[in-house]
Specification:
Blueprint (H helix, E strand, L loop, with lengths): L13 H6 L2 H7 L7 E4 L7 E6 L4 E6 L3 E2 L3 E5 L4 H15 L7 E5 L4 E4 L6 E2 H7 L6 H15 L7 H11 L3 H10 L18 H8 L2 H16 L3 E3 L8 E3 L4 E3 L6 E3 L1 H18 L10 H28 L17 H32 L5 H4 L4 H20 L7 H11 L1
Antiparallel strand pairs: 1-2, 2-3, 3-7, 4-5, 6-7, 8-10, 9-12, 10-11
Bound molecules: adenosine-5'-diphosphate and magnesium ion (3 copies).
Length: 416
Protein backbone atom coordinates (compact mmCIF):
# COMPACT_ATOMS: atom_id res chain seq x y z
CA UNK A 1 0.00 0.00 0.00
CA UNK A 2 2.90 2.34 0.72
CA UNK A 3 3.87 2.77 -2.94
CA UNK A 4 0.36 3.57 -4.15
CA UNK A 5 -0.73 7.07 -5.00
CA UNK A 6 -2.90 8.62 -2.29
CA UNK A 7 -6.49 7.44 -2.22
CA UNK A 8 -9.03 8.39 0.40
CA UNK A 9 -10.34 5.41 2.35
CA UNK A 10 -14.01 4.58 2.57
CA UNK A 11 -15.88 2.31 4.95
CA UNK A 12 -16.10 -0.20 2.08
CA UNK A 13 -12.46 -0.15 0.91
CA UNK A 14 -10.78 0.04 4.31
CA UNK A 15 -10.80 -3.72 5.18
CA UNK A 16 -9.29 -4.74 1.85
CA UNK A 17 -6.69 -1.99 1.86
CA UNK A 18 -5.62 -2.28 5.49
CA UNK A 19 -6.12 -6.04 5.84
CA UNK A 20 -2.75 -6.38 4.08
CA UNK A 21 -0.91 -4.39 6.76
CA UNK A 22 0.36 -6.83 9.39
CA UNK A 23 0.39 -4.36 12.29
CA UNK A 24 -3.25 -3.51 11.62
CA UNK A 25 -4.48 -7.05 10.82
CA UNK A 26 -2.90 -8.46 13.98
CA UNK A 27 -4.37 -5.79 16.20
CA UNK A 28 -7.92 -6.09 14.83
CA UNK A 29 -7.99 -9.86 14.30
CA UNK A 30 -10.17 -12.14 12.16
CA UNK A 31 -10.84 -11.90 8.43
CA UNK A 32 -10.80 -8.28 7.19
CA UNK A 33 -14.10 -8.87 5.33
CA UNK A 34 -15.69 -9.31 8.76
CA UNK A 35 -14.38 -6.06 10.25
CA UNK A 36 -16.91 -3.52 11.43
CA UNK A 37 -15.93 -0.06 10.16
CA UNK A 38 -17.47 3.31 11.01
CA UNK A 39 -16.43 6.81 9.97
CA UNK A 40 -16.68 9.09 13.00
CA UNK A 41 -14.61 12.15 12.12
CA UNK A 42 -16.22 15.24 13.60
CA UNK A 43 -13.20 17.45 13.19
CA UNK A 44 -12.63 20.13 10.66
CA UNK A 45 -9.93 18.47 8.63
CA UNK A 46 -9.63 14.67 8.44
CA UNK A 47 -11.26 11.25 8.11
CA UNK A 48 -11.42 9.09 11.24
CA UNK A 49 -12.53 5.45 11.12
CA UNK A 50 -13.15 3.06 13.99
CA UNK A 51 -12.29 -0.51 13.01
CA UNK A 52 -13.45 -3.44 15.16
CA UNK A 53 -12.68 -7.11 14.59
CA UNK A 54 -12.60 -10.47 16.32
CA UNK A 55 -9.87 -9.73 18.83
CA UNK A 56 -9.39 -6.00 18.88
CA UNK A 57 -9.99 -2.54 17.51
CA UNK A 58 -8.20 0.55 16.35
CA UNK A 59 -8.69 3.95 14.83
CA UNK A 60 -7.49 4.93 11.36
CA UNK A 61 -7.04 8.65 10.86
CA UNK A 62 -6.41 9.77 7.30
CA UNK A 63 -5.68 13.26 6.05
CA UNK A 64 -7.43 14.56 2.93
CA UNK A 65 -5.78 16.86 0.40
CA UNK A 66 -8.20 19.63 1.38
CA UNK A 67 -9.96 21.08 4.44
CA UNK A 68 -12.91 18.84 5.23
CA UNK A 69 -14.91 21.69 6.78
CA UNK A 70 -14.70 23.78 3.61
CA UNK A 71 -14.23 21.27 0.76
CA UNK A 72 -11.77 20.90 -2.09
CA UNK A 73 -11.78 24.64 -2.75
CA UNK A 74 -9.32 24.88 0.17
CA UNK A 75 -6.39 22.54 -0.48
CA UNK A 76 -4.25 21.43 2.46
CA UNK A 77 -1.23 19.14 2.13
CA UNK A 78 -1.30 15.50 3.20
CA UNK A 79 2.02 15.94 4.99
CA UNK A 80 0.15 17.12 8.08
CA UNK A 81 -0.28 13.42 8.83
CA UNK A 82 3.53 13.08 8.89
CA UNK A 83 3.75 15.86 11.47
CA UNK A 84 0.94 14.34 13.52
CA UNK A 85 2.71 10.98 13.55
CA UNK A 86 6.05 12.47 14.57
CA UNK A 87 4.42 14.63 17.23
CA UNK A 88 2.59 11.62 18.69
CA UNK A 89 5.83 9.63 19.00
CA UNK A 90 7.59 12.53 20.73
CA UNK A 91 4.68 13.21 23.07
CA UNK A 92 4.56 9.52 24.03
CA UNK A 93 8.29 9.57 24.82
CA UNK A 94 8.06 12.80 26.82
CA UNK A 95 4.72 12.21 28.55
CA UNK A 96 4.21 8.43 28.56
CA UNK A 97 0.59 7.30 28.43
CA UNK A 98 -0.80 10.74 27.57
CA UNK A 99 -1.55 10.10 23.88
CA UNK A 100 -3.04 7.14 21.96
CA UNK A 101 -0.57 4.38 21.10
CA UNK A 102 0.47 4.37 17.44
CA UNK A 103 0.50 1.04 15.61
CA UNK A 104 1.29 2.01 12.04
CA UNK A 105 2.01 5.02 9.86
CA UNK A 106 1.77 5.21 6.07
CA UNK A 107 3.18 8.45 4.75
CA UNK A 108 1.95 8.13 1.13
CA UNK A 109 -1.58 7.36 2.26
CA UNK A 110 -1.32 10.00 5.01
CA UNK A 111 -2.78 7.61 7.55
CA UNK A 112 -2.09 6.71 11.15
CA UNK A 113 -3.37 3.53 12.83
CA UNK A 114 -3.74 4.21 16.52
CA UNK A 115 -5.33 3.00 19.70
CA UNK A 116 -9.15 3.28 19.76
CA UNK A 117 -9.92 5.25 22.90
CA UNK A 118 -13.09 3.79 24.35
CA UNK A 119 -15.30 4.56 26.23
CA UNK A 120 -13.61 7.96 26.10
CA UNK A 121 -15.51 11.01 24.92
CA UNK A 122 -14.31 14.39 23.75
CA UNK A 123 -13.63 16.65 26.74
CA UNK A 124 -15.54 19.56 25.20
CA UNK A 125 -18.67 17.36 25.03
CA UNK A 126 -18.26 16.28 28.63
CA UNK A 127 -17.95 19.88 29.82
CA UNK A 128 -21.03 20.94 27.84
CA UNK A 129 -22.95 18.08 29.47
CA UNK A 130 -21.83 19.28 32.89
CA UNK A 131 -19.52 16.39 33.76
CA UNK A 132 -16.93 17.13 36.43
CA UNK A 133 -13.96 15.03 35.36
CA UNK A 134 -11.68 14.55 38.37
CA UNK A 135 -8.37 14.04 36.55
CA UNK A 136 -8.15 16.53 33.74
CA UNK A 137 -6.37 19.36 35.55
CA UNK A 138 -3.62 17.12 36.86
CA UNK A 139 -3.22 15.06 33.67
CA UNK A 140 -3.18 18.06 31.34
CA UNK A 141 -0.93 20.13 33.61
CA UNK A 142 1.56 17.25 33.61
CA UNK A 143 1.21 16.71 29.85
CA UNK A 144 2.02 20.33 29.11
CA UNK A 145 4.93 20.61 31.53
CA UNK A 146 6.53 17.38 30.31
CA UNK A 147 6.13 17.88 26.58
CA UNK A 148 6.98 21.58 26.63
CA UNK A 149 10.00 21.28 28.93
CA UNK A 150 11.41 18.12 27.38
CA UNK A 151 11.07 19.40 23.81
CA UNK A 152 13.07 22.56 24.52
CA UNK A 153 16.70 23.65 24.84
CA UNK A 154 16.22 23.40 28.59
CA UNK A 155 16.38 19.65 28.22
CA UNK A 156 17.31 18.39 24.75
CA UNK A 157 20.75 18.18 23.23
CA UNK A 158 21.14 21.18 20.92
CA UNK A 159 21.81 19.02 17.86
CA UNK A 160 18.69 16.91 18.41
CA UNK A 161 16.49 19.88 19.05
CA UNK A 162 17.75 21.69 15.96
CA UNK A 163 17.12 18.59 13.85
CA UNK A 164 13.58 18.43 15.17
CA UNK A 165 13.10 22.13 14.65
CA UNK A 166 14.08 21.61 11.00
CA UNK A 167 11.74 18.63 10.63
CA UNK A 168 8.70 20.48 11.96
CA UNK A 169 9.59 23.75 10.20
CA UNK A 170 7.94 22.32 7.08
CA UNK A 171 4.50 22.32 8.72
CA UNK A 172 4.02 25.68 7.03
CA UNK A 173 0.43 25.36 5.87
CA UNK A 174 -0.98 24.43 9.26
CA UNK A 175 0.95 27.23 10.95
CA UNK A 176 -0.44 29.53 8.27
CA UNK A 177 -3.98 28.55 9.27
CA UNK A 178 -3.27 29.54 12.87
CA UNK A 179 -1.42 32.70 11.87
CA UNK A 180 -4.39 33.91 9.87
CA UNK A 181 -7.46 32.43 11.55
CA UNK A 182 -6.35 32.97 15.13
CA UNK A 183 -4.26 36.10 15.14
CA UNK A 184 -5.47 38.22 12.23
CA UNK A 185 -8.92 37.49 10.80
CA UNK A 186 -10.89 38.01 14.04
CA UNK A 187 -9.65 41.60 14.22
CA UNK A 188 -11.02 42.82 10.91
CA UNK A 189 -13.93 41.95 8.64
CA UNK A 190 -12.24 38.94 7.00
CA UNK A 191 -14.50 37.09 4.52
CA UNK A 192 -14.70 33.77 6.40
CA UNK A 193 -15.55 35.32 9.77
CA UNK A 194 -18.95 35.00 11.37
CA UNK A 195 -20.47 35.92 14.71
CA UNK A 196 -23.82 35.91 16.47
CA UNK A 197 -25.65 39.00 15.07
CA UNK A 198 -26.52 40.42 18.51
CA UNK A 199 -22.80 40.96 19.04
CA UNK A 200 -22.46 43.53 16.23
CA UNK A 201 -21.84 46.60 18.46
CA UNK A 202 -19.30 44.80 20.65
CA UNK A 203 -17.53 43.34 17.62
CA UNK A 204 -17.22 46.82 16.11
CA UNK A 205 -15.81 48.08 19.42
CA UNK A 206 -13.21 45.30 19.58
CA UNK A 207 -12.15 45.74 15.97
CA UNK A 208 -11.62 49.46 16.64
CA UNK A 209 -9.63 48.74 19.80
CA UNK A 210 -6.06 49.78 19.01
CA UNK A 211 -4.53 48.30 22.16
CA UNK A 212 -6.14 44.94 21.44
CA UNK A 213 -5.09 44.92 17.80
CA UNK A 214 -1.49 45.68 18.74
CA UNK A 215 -1.47 43.03 21.45
CA UNK A 216 -2.91 40.38 19.12
CA UNK A 217 -0.14 41.07 16.63
CA UNK A 218 2.48 40.85 19.37
CA UNK A 219 1.12 37.41 20.16
CA UNK A 220 1.31 36.47 16.48
CA UNK A 221 4.90 37.71 16.36
CA UNK A 222 5.74 35.50 19.33
CA UNK A 223 3.91 32.53 17.80
CA UNK A 224 5.83 32.83 14.55
CA UNK A 225 9.26 33.82 15.85
CA UNK A 226 9.76 32.07 19.20
CA UNK A 227 10.67 28.48 18.27
CA UNK A 228 11.07 27.44 21.88
CA UNK A 229 9.72 23.91 22.00
CA UNK A 230 7.57 21.37 20.20
CA UNK A 231 4.04 22.56 20.89
CA UNK A 232 0.89 20.54 20.24
CA UNK A 233 -0.48 23.51 18.36
CA UNK A 234 -4.21 22.73 18.67
CA UNK A 235 -4.60 21.97 22.36
CA UNK A 236 -8.25 22.82 22.93
CA UNK A 237 -10.86 20.74 24.72
CA UNK A 238 -11.84 19.12 21.39
CA UNK A 239 -8.34 17.60 21.25
CA UNK A 240 -8.68 15.78 24.57
CA UNK A 241 -10.54 12.50 25.14
CA UNK A 242 -11.58 11.49 28.63
CA UNK A 243 -13.16 9.07 31.02
CA UNK A 244 -13.32 9.67 34.76
CA UNK A 245 -10.11 7.62 35.07
CA UNK A 246 -8.14 8.54 31.95
CA UNK A 247 -7.13 11.62 29.93
CA UNK A 248 -5.60 11.45 26.44
CA UNK A 249 -4.48 14.18 24.12
CA UNK A 250 -5.17 13.61 20.41
CA UNK A 251 -4.81 15.47 17.10
CA UNK A 252 -1.35 17.14 17.13
CA UNK A 253 -1.25 17.79 13.37
CA UNK A 254 -0.54 21.50 14.04
CA UNK A 255 2.65 20.62 15.94
CA UNK A 256 5.63 22.89 15.34
CA UNK A 257 8.39 24.65 17.26
CA UNK A 258 6.73 27.60 18.94
CA UNK A 259 6.28 29.25 22.32
CA UNK A 260 5.44 27.11 25.35
CA UNK A 261 2.73 29.53 26.36
CA UNK A 262 0.74 28.85 23.21
CA UNK A 263 -0.48 25.40 24.31
CA UNK A 264 -1.12 26.57 27.87
CA UNK A 265 -3.03 29.65 26.75
CA UNK A 266 -5.17 27.78 24.24
CA UNK A 267 -6.14 25.11 26.75
CA UNK A 268 -7.01 27.53 29.54
CA UNK A 269 -8.95 29.70 27.06
CA UNK A 270 -11.10 26.71 26.21
CA UNK A 271 -11.76 26.09 29.92
CA UNK A 272 -12.76 29.74 30.31
CA UNK A 273 -15.08 29.46 27.32
CA UNK A 274 -16.60 26.31 28.82
CA UNK A 275 -17.17 28.42 31.96
CA UNK A 276 -18.85 31.34 30.13
CA UNK A 277 -21.02 28.91 28.14
CA UNK A 278 -22.50 27.22 31.24
CA UNK A 279 -25.26 29.86 31.58
CA UNK A 280 -26.50 28.69 28.21
CA UNK A 281 -26.72 25.06 29.34
CA UNK A 282 -28.92 25.46 32.41
CA UNK A 283 -32.14 24.04 30.93
CA UNK A 284 -31.59 20.86 32.98
CA UNK A 285 -30.85 22.77 36.18
CA UNK A 286 -28.32 25.17 37.68
CA UNK A 287 -24.71 24.87 36.60
CA UNK A 288 -23.31 26.76 39.60
CA UNK A 289 -21.34 23.71 40.69
CA UNK A 290 -19.96 23.20 37.21
CA UNK A 291 -18.87 26.82 37.02
CA UNK A 292 -16.96 26.53 40.29
CA UNK A 293 -15.45 23.26 39.08
CA UNK A 294 -14.18 24.84 35.86
CA UNK A 295 -12.52 27.76 37.65
CA UNK A 296 -10.86 25.22 39.93
CA UNK A 297 -9.69 23.20 36.94
CA UNK A 298 -8.06 26.32 35.50
CA UNK A 299 -6.23 27.07 38.73
CA UNK A 300 -5.18 23.47 39.27
CA UNK A 301 -3.99 22.96 35.69
CA UNK A 302 -1.75 26.00 35.98
CA UNK A 303 -0.51 24.97 39.44
CA UNK A 304 0.32 21.42 38.31
CA UNK A 305 2.01 22.80 35.18
CA UNK A 306 4.19 25.11 37.29
CA UNK A 307 5.03 22.44 39.85
CA UNK A 308 5.98 19.82 37.27
CA UNK A 309 7.89 22.32 35.15
CA UNK A 310 9.80 23.39 38.27
CA UNK A 311 10.54 19.78 39.23
CA UNK A 312 11.87 19.09 35.72
CA UNK A 313 13.91 22.29 35.86
CA UNK A 314 15.61 21.02 39.01
CA UNK A 315 16.19 17.44 37.85
CA UNK A 316 16.30 17.34 34.03
CA UNK A 317 17.89 20.61 32.99
CA UNK A 318 20.31 18.89 30.64
CA UNK A 319 20.16 21.24 27.67
CA UNK A 320 22.36 24.19 26.83
CA UNK A 321 20.18 26.82 28.51
CA UNK A 322 20.77 27.89 32.12
CA UNK A 323 23.52 25.31 32.28
CA UNK A 324 24.19 23.76 35.67
CA UNK A 325 27.84 24.83 35.47
CA UNK A 326 26.63 28.38 36.10
CA UNK A 327 24.38 27.50 39.02
CA UNK A 328 24.18 24.21 40.89
CA UNK A 329 27.81 23.33 40.17
CA UNK A 330 28.83 26.58 41.85
CA UNK A 331 26.44 25.86 44.71
CA UNK A 332 24.22 28.64 43.43
CA UNK A 333 20.87 26.93 43.76
CA UNK A 334 19.24 30.30 44.25
CA UNK A 335 20.50 31.45 40.84
CA UNK A 336 18.79 28.49 39.18
CA UNK A 337 15.58 29.24 41.06
CA UNK A 338 15.76 32.90 40.05
CA UNK A 339 16.08 31.93 36.40
CA UNK A 340 13.18 29.49 36.75
CA UNK A 341 11.05 32.30 38.12
CA UNK A 342 11.84 34.45 35.09
CA UNK A 343 10.98 31.67 32.65
CA UNK A 344 7.70 30.83 34.37
CA UNK A 345 6.73 34.48 34.59
CA UNK A 346 7.28 34.80 30.85
CA UNK A 347 5.04 31.80 30.21
CA UNK A 348 2.41 33.35 32.49
CA UNK A 349 2.27 36.69 30.67
CA UNK A 350 2.29 35.12 27.22
CA UNK A 351 -0.24 32.46 28.19
CA UNK A 352 -2.74 35.20 29.06
CA UNK A 353 -2.18 36.88 25.69
CA UNK A 354 -2.69 33.66 23.76
CA UNK A 355 -5.75 32.81 25.84
CA UNK A 356 -7.40 36.15 25.10
CA UNK A 357 -6.82 35.82 21.37
CA UNK A 358 -8.04 32.20 21.32
CA UNK A 359 -11.31 33.27 22.96
CA UNK A 360 -11.80 35.98 20.35
CA UNK A 361 -11.16 33.79 17.36
CA UNK A 362 -13.66 31.15 18.54
CA UNK A 363 -16.43 33.77 18.68
CA UNK A 364 -15.45 36.10 15.83
CA UNK A 365 -13.57 33.91 13.37
CA UNK A 366 -14.21 30.88 11.18
CA UNK A 367 -13.90 27.97 13.63
CA UNK A 368 -16.43 28.28 16.43
CA UNK A 369 -16.83 25.84 19.28
CA UNK A 370 -19.77 23.78 20.41
CA UNK A 371 -19.73 25.26 23.92
CA UNK A 372 -21.40 28.37 22.51
CA UNK A 373 -22.80 27.00 19.23
CA UNK A 374 -24.97 24.46 21.08
CA UNK A 375 -26.82 27.22 22.94
CA UNK A 376 -30.05 27.38 20.92
CA UNK A 377 -31.41 30.58 22.43
CA UNK A 378 -29.47 33.04 20.29
CA UNK A 379 -29.87 36.00 22.65
CA UNK A 380 -28.60 33.91 25.54
CA UNK A 381 -25.69 32.66 23.44
CA UNK A 382 -24.79 36.25 22.57
CA UNK A 383 -24.75 37.13 26.29
CA UNK A 384 -22.37 34.28 27.07
CA UNK A 385 -20.16 35.15 24.12
CA UNK A 386 -20.12 38.86 25.02
CA UNK A 387 -18.88 38.11 28.52
CA UNK A 388 -16.16 35.86 27.09
CA UNK A 389 -15.12 38.49 24.53
CA UNK A 390 -14.78 41.18 27.21
CA UNK A 391 -12.85 38.80 29.41
CA UNK A 392 -10.53 37.86 26.53
CA UNK A 393 -9.85 41.51 25.75
CA UNK A 394 -9.04 42.22 29.39
CA UNK A 395 -6.56 39.39 29.87
CA UNK A 396 -4.83 39.98 26.53
CA UNK A 397 -4.38 43.72 26.95
CA UNK A 398 -3.60 43.65 30.69
CA UNK A 399 -1.53 40.50 30.70
CA UNK A 400 1.48 42.22 32.27
CA UNK A 401 -0.58 43.71 35.07
CA UNK A 402 -2.40 40.77 36.59
CA UNK A 403 -0.80 38.67 39.25
CA UNK A 404 -2.87 35.57 39.89
CA UNK A 405 -5.46 33.24 38.48
CA UNK A 406 -7.53 33.86 41.60
CA UNK A 407 -7.79 37.50 40.58
CA UNK A 408 -8.60 36.60 36.97
CA UNK A 409 -11.22 34.06 37.94
CA UNK A 410 -12.87 36.61 40.19
CA UNK A 411 -13.13 38.86 37.15
CA UNK A 412 -14.61 35.96 35.16
CA UNK A 413 -17.30 35.61 37.83
CA UNK A 414 -18.02 39.34 37.76
CA UNK A 415 -18.47 39.31 33.98
CA UNK A 416 -20.43 36.04 33.87
P1 LIG B 1 -9.41 16.35 13.12
O1 LIG B 1 -7.94 16.58 12.91
O2 LIG B 1 -10.14 16.22 11.84
O3 LIG B 1 -9.99 17.34 14.07
P2 LIG B 1 -9.35 14.43 15.32
O4 LIG B 1 -8.03 13.74 15.50
O5 LIG B 1 -9.67 15.53 16.24
O6 LIG B 1 -9.50 14.89 13.80
O7 LIG B 1 -10.48 13.32 15.38
C1 LIG B 1 -11.83 13.62 15.08
C2 LIG B 1 -12.73 12.83 16.01
O8 LIG B 1 -12.51 11.43 15.86
C3 LIG B 1 -12.50 13.11 17.47
O9 LIG B 1 -13.24 14.22 17.89
C4 LIG B 1 -12.95 11.83 18.13
O10 LIG B 1 -14.35 11.84 18.27
C5 LIG B 1 -12.58 10.77 17.10
N1 LIG B 1 -11.26 10.18 17.41
C6 LIG B 1 -10.06 10.61 16.95
N2 LIG B 1 -9.06 9.84 17.40
C7 LIG B 1 -9.63 8.88 18.17
C8 LIG B 1 -9.13 7.77 18.94
N3 LIG B 1 -7.83 7.50 18.98
N4 LIG B 1 -10.03 7.00 19.60
C9 LIG B 1 -11.35 7.29 19.54
N5 LIG B 1 -11.87 8.31 18.85
C10 LIG B 1 -11.04 9.12 18.18
MG1 LIG C 1 -9.50 17.60 16.03
MG1 LIG D 1 -12.24 17.50 16.51
MG1 LIG E 1 -6.96 18.19 13.71
Amino acid sequence: MTDDAFQALTVETLPRRLGAVAAVAEKVGGAPQGWKVREVGDGNLNLVFIVEGETGSLVIKQALPYVRLVGDSWPLPLKRSFFEYHALTRQEARAPGAVPKVFHFDEAQALIAMEYLSPHIILRRALIQGQELPRIARDLGLFMARTLFRGSDLCMKARERKADLALFADNVELCDITENLVFTDPYFGAPMNRHTPQLDPLVAELRADRDLRVEAQRMKHLFAANAETLVHGDLHTGSVMVTAQDTRVIDPEFAFYGPMAFDVGMLLANFWMAFFAQRGHETGGSRAGMRAYLLNVIEETWRVFREEFSALWRTERTGMLYHRSLYEEQNDTLGAEQALGHVLHGVWEDMLGFAGVEIHRRILGLAHNADFEDIEDVALRAQCEAAALRFGRHIAVNRRHVTSLGEINQLAQLLD
